[in-house]
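Input structure tokens:
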């Protein structure tokens, strides 16, 4: 029993720092496959070969603390072997008098002989797997994070070393992701709602328009002024926030007008045709009829935030 306890606490220790969680995950992952596209836009699978720092010629025995993560280590690479001269992040080390970087931190920094390096990929890790998701896959991970503890890094420039700056998360409902070098706190319900909103808004507008608030007038007219106002009203409070940046990074435009209409009716409570019809009715009757209308037009095609609500209701019923 005592031995087992120690084993568990050792594992917990290894999972406390993001780089350690990532390195452990990679060792368990086997072949690391990235679903990506070739230069012609065809879907391809690419095997990504990263270096195990323990096999690196510059790895040496070192009894001390890691310069970057500050954890005790028995091995390390000298700082100048790990970082190039152009490295400017000298203030980010957690143990700045140390001379060495531990294997886990090295893993997230080194470039392999195949010229692959973790920093060039967005990545998700938990204790069992390291994933290099494309944007569509990352969208799924943000909506449905893996079993905690987990780490999520979004590589925007694909140049910066961000893995050791992140945080290990223990909750699927509120968690932090690194958006490039910015830690962004995600409340999953809020994120889901904003993502849905933006993906439907993208039916009529570009990501730049939604991000900047600088809209093409013709597109507003095509989309409908009232409809545009309803979306804009809900998006504008997020403008300039890192949460909107994360949403934009993974947002996939919806492609069907029917979906847009359903969303506007069910989520934004907009249904211009219905409003005109029911204007002479008492408000309660109009309300009922409107809900029926939504049900019959949109069927049981629930969007993600409706599914989330439904799942929660189910979970509540179970307890
Ligand atoms: Zn380290």
């Amino acid at each position: 029993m005592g031995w087992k306890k120690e084993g568990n606490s050792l594992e917990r220790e290894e999972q406390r720092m993001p780089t350690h969680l990532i390195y452990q995950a990679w060792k368990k992952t086997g072949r690391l496959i990235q679903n990506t596209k070739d230069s012609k836009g065809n879907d391809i699978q690419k095997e990504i070969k990263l270096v195990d720092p323990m096999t690196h010629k510059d790895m040496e025995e070192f009894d001390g603390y890691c310069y970057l993560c500050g954890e005790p280590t028995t091995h390390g690479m000298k700082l100048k072997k790990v970082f190039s001269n152009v490295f400017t992040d000298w203030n980010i080390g957690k143990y700045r008098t140390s001379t060495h970087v531990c294997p886990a931190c090295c893993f997230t920094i080194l470039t392999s002989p195949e010229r692959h390096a973790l920093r060039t990929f967005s990545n998700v890790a938990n204790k069992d797997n390291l994933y290099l998701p494309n944007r569509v896959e990352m969208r799924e991970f943000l909506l449905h994070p893996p079993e905690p503890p987990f780490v999520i890094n979004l590589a925007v420039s694909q140049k910066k070393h961000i893995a050791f700056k992140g945080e290990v998360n223990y909750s699927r409902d509120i968690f932090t992701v690194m958006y490039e070098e910015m830690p962004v706190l995600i409340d999953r319900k809020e994120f889901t709602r904003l993502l849905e909103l933006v993906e439907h808004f993208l039916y009529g507008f570009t990501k730049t328009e939604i991000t900047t608030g600088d809209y093409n007038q013709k597109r507003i007219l095509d989309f409908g002024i009232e409809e545009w106002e309803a979306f804009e009203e809900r998006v504008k409070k997020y403008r300039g926030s890192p949460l909107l940046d994360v949403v934009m990074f993974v947002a996939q435009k919806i492609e069907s007008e029917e979906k847009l209409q359903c969303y506007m009716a069910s989520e934004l409570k907009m249904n211009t045709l219905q409003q005109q019809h029911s204007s002479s009715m008492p408000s309660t009757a109009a309300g009922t009829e409107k809900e029926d209308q939504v049900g019959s037009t949109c069927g049981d095609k629930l969007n993600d935030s409706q599914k989330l609500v439904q799942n929660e209701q189910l979970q509540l019923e179970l307890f």
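The first strand starts at residue 33 and ends at 37. Confidence is low (pLDDT under 50) at residues 1-7, 274-296.
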